[in-house]
């Protein structure tokens, strides 16, 4: 599969996080000739917080993570992720697989099973051949290295065309705290509470409740504001692990919260840039809504509209479809106060085509790989920004025969 | 454009409705070399009722129809429809165009302007060159014929690949009442309250309030249960005209209401069969939901899922994506009670792949042009049935460059 035209030039150089080591293996869960399991081991004292899909059919691994999130267990911890099989809708056998992986990982690492967090991503409804993962555990343990987060980013990919990573450093009281994270995701992207598989590591010192509050808050404006295809995964998981190795306390620290949000947004936008079949990156900016909830409704209605997304794919400045998406969103709207722009070009104002509208100028703008669709409803103070991509033949190619 | 593979073999032979005459013209609103305006004239005593889109950005013609629906005006009436331009999001100029068309039509026919109902369908946001329609009025009047409903069905098409018609006869107290209707619609189909442009005629005798109640009730289980692409039009309109020419009173008559519903469902399903790029017709049957609202949420979540629709296009029995769509719908669901079937083949029961599941048998079923996706939630008595089509390269082809 060709790399997305919206991919970054290269995978970023991610800093090592004191207290975290990584390893990957070719377990052959489904794919051949590539890594498909990653293990991250966190030193004793690490705190892990997460947000997860709200799907009513969420996977066995998600249910297990939710049960373990915030438990008072201490000591070292681990995150084990496989690609190729999501272990979702696999009934009681699915839970058995998660328990087997957790128990074996705990035993080989000498840690508590409730400190092992697992994720699975890939096809839904097939039993997970977890014995293949168990068979790789010894090699994974032997291969643990502090500088291998880039290999971990590759091992968790499914239809992704590039690995996704982001990092930040924060100055807290004159000391440096470091954050590094990885993500996977390309299709079935319309996160509800969290998205896809995302693992973020920091050497900050923080208690679970404070970290959980930061992660939940940051997810709202980052992972919960992206959509590729309006379809919400059964496996969406964001885990943030703080090892405390820096000794720098960050509970309630605004600079740290901002840096964490920045890393989460960076990873979220990389997921959109790897949207299945994507050739255009689209930022939808809504202002003037009656309230923030209405602004989000309008932004998501535009971002999820197949007609808007195909028009962008065709580089067609079809703002009539934006009008349609505003109209169907369910949010309060008044045609005669509505204004629409593509980038900085106003195409419609006060319920009508802008008198200065230039088809040539707008068509030229649509050829850019990164586009802004702006809508002002003229009613109130509500704003929202969401990110999406276009809908192309590539999406059909990828999804008309993914399972086979 | 090739005719949809799901099209009926031929346009049905529709009966003439006493009291209704039709004419069409090539006004050149946007298209060249084809008819693009249709006029239906209803004899004095006719009653017209309708349901319309709830879009917040509905078109000028829809707003005008809603204002006129149920007014006490009497005498002859008219319905005038153009294709090629929807006169939506055209500000105050849009309302001016509707008023000009209504006034001119009323004058040439010698009827009250509030008895002229208009619709426009096509591109959004372009001023309607209504003077081209006015120039065609004299020819339209001269061309009125009782047996020309088939030409009317063709004049209102946009991206439709075939004209859509349906009829029924009802025995009421030993006398015969006849119903005949036409529709257009292919993309931007996710009706909310009504759909697309639909015109139904009957010689039944009925008062406006009774007819309106029947039309609104029938829309719920017909036009409001179809979706092509989840995008709701700014122009959706269903008008039902009863001329009373049969002299048969049908207010409150169940047989007539059923026949009207049947005609509406037939037309609604023809719209799905002409879904943009469609190669598969899909009926989604949901049972066992906590209530009817939840059943509809689940059915629409499946029917609007790009991943389910592309899987069907690829003839892939990807029931995992059905699980996903159930999970994201927001309806109450319990993985371990959920059962899924394709046609009569159960693929999953009690939260797991059915033990008798046969990949070969299911894959063979997916090659049919008409498919049933069945979901039983195992929770209550709520049921819903909705209809949709697959998502193919054809949809991208049609919509990546429709406006230009």
TrEMBL record, chains A, B:
<keyword id="KW-0012">Acyltransferase</keyword>
<keyword id="KW-0068">Autocatalytic cleavage</keyword>
<keyword id="KW-0055">Arginine biosynthesis</keyword>
<feature type="binding site">
    <location>
        <position position="184"/>
    </location>
    <ligand>
        <name>substrate</name>
    </ligand>
</feature>
<feature type="site" description="Involved in the stabilization of negative charge on the oxyanion by the formation of the oxyanion hole">
    <location>
        <position position="122"/>
    </location>
</feature>
<feature type="site" description="Cleavage; by autolysis">
    <location>
        <begin position="194"/>
        <end position="195"/>
    </location>
</feature>
<protein>
    <recommendedName>
        <fullName>Arginine biosynthesis bifunctional protein ArgJ</fullName>
        <ecNumber>2.3.1.35</ecNumber>
        <ecNumber>2.3.1.1</ecNumber>
    </recommendedName>
</protein>
<feature type="binding site">
    <location>
        <position position="158"/>
    </location>
    <ligand>
        <name>substrate</name>
    </ligand>
</feature>
<feature type="site" description="Involved in the stabilization of negative charge on the oxyanion by the formation of the oxyanion hole">
    <location>
        <position position="121"/>
    </location>
</feature>
<dbReference type="InterPro" id="IPR002813">
    <property type="entry name" value="Arg_biosynth_ArgJ"/>
</dbReference>
<keyword id="KW-0963">Cytoplasm</keyword>
<dbReference type="GO" id="GO:0006592">
    <property type="term" value="P:ornithine biosynthetic process"/>
</dbReference>
<feature type="active site" description="Nucleophile">
    <location>
        <position position="195"/>
    </location>
</feature>
<feature type="binding site">
    <location>
        <position position="195"/>
    </location>
    <ligand>
        <name>substrate</name>
    </ligand>
</feature>
<keyword id="KW-0511">Multifunctional enzyme</keyword>
<feature type="binding site">
    <location>
        <position position="404"/>
    </location>
    <ligand>
        <name>substrate</name>
    </ligand>
</feature>
<dbReference type="InterPro" id="IPR016117">
    <property type="entry name" value="ArgJ-like_dom_sf"/>
</dbReference>
<comment type="similarity">
    <text>Belongs to the ArgJ family.</text>
</comment>
<dbReference type="GO" id="GO:0004042">
    <property type="term" value="F:L-glutamate N-acetyltransferase activity"/>
</dbReference>
<comment type="pathway">
    <text>Amino-acid biosynthesis; L-arginine biosynthesis; L-ornithine and N-acetyl-L-glutamate from L-glutamate and N(2)-acetyl-L-ornithine (cyclic): step 1/1.</text>
</comment>
<comment type="subunit">
    <text>Heterotetramer of two alpha and two beta chains.</text>
</comment>
<comment type="pathway">
    <text>Amino-acid biosynthesis; L-arginine biosynthesis; N(2)-acetyl-L-ornithine from L-glutamate: step 1/4.</text>
</comment>
<dbReference type="GO" id="GO:0006526">
    <property type="term" value="P:L-arginine biosynthetic process"/>
</dbReference>
<dbReference type="GO" id="GO:0004358">
    <property type="term" value="F:L-glutamate N-acetyltransferase activity, acting on acetyl-L-ornithine as donor"/>
</dbReference>
<keyword id="KW-0808">Transferase</keyword>
<comment type="function">
    <text>Catalyzes two activities which are involved in the cyclic version of arginine biosynthesis: the synthesis of N-acetylglutamate from glutamate and acetyl-CoA as the acetyl donor, and of ornithine by transacetylation between N(2)-acetylornithine and glutamate.</text>
</comment>
<dbReference type="InterPro" id="IPR042195">
    <property type="entry name" value="ArgJ_beta_C"/>
</dbReference>
<feature type="binding site">
    <location>
        <position position="276"/>
    </location>
    <ligand>
        <name>substrate</name>
    </ligand>
</feature>
<dbReference type="Pfam" id="PF01960">
    <property type="entry name" value="ArgJ"/>
</dbReference>
<feature type="binding site">
    <location>
        <position position="399"/>
    </location>
    <ligand>
        <name>substrate</name>
    </ligand>
</feature>
<keyword id="KW-0028">Amino-acid biosynthesis</keyword>
<dbReference type="GO" id="GO:0005737">
    <property type="term" value="C:cytoplasm"/>
</dbReference>
